[in-house]
Design goal:
Elements (H helix, E strand, L loop, with lengths): L8 E3 L1 E2 L6 E5 L6 E3 L3 E6 L4 E6 L4 E6 L12 E3 L5 E3 L4 E4 L4 E14 L4
Parallel strand pairs: 2-5
Antiparallel strand pairs: 1-8, 3-11, 4-9, 5-6, 6-7, 7-11, 8-10, 10-11
Length: 116
């Protein structure tokens, strides 16, 4: 007898909010994110998804070059092997069947816009 455990994480995506706070990519980011740290996600243009972490930190997942981030506006699924989402290893799957690899993660730093 063999027992197999499978974990599928569904992450809803919120539309990008308009406001005075903007997020800029840092030059570094983690290799992996623990799924327990995820609080939500939002689209980051056509090539990425921003993960909102518990503790109000944000990390941008840059997708493979041949992927369109807009395919994931209705949400997506992740099937991590070890309760972590890792760049260069894991893929995200849209509800309509698109599949994209995560190329890298970048930490996001908040900045206030001075424009009115």
């Amino acid at each position: 007898m063999s027992v197999e455990q499978r974990l599928i994480v569904r992450v809803p995506v919120r539309p990008r909010a308009k406001g005075r706070l903007r997020w800029e990519e840092a030059d570094h980011g983690p290799k992996c994110l623990p799924i327990g740290a995820l609080a939500g996600a939002s689209l980051a243009g056509s090539d990425g998804i921003d993960f909102v972490l518990r503790g109000r930190q944000r990390v941008r997942a840059k997708l493979d070059d041949d992927c369109g981030g807009l395919d994931f506006w209705e949400g997506f699924y992740v099937q991590p092997e070890d309760r972590r989402i890792c760049a260069g290893r894991d893929e995200i799957r849209s509800r309509v069947g698109a599949v994209c690899g995560i190329r890298r993660f970048r930490m996001l730093v908040p900045h206030l816009d001075n424009e009115e």
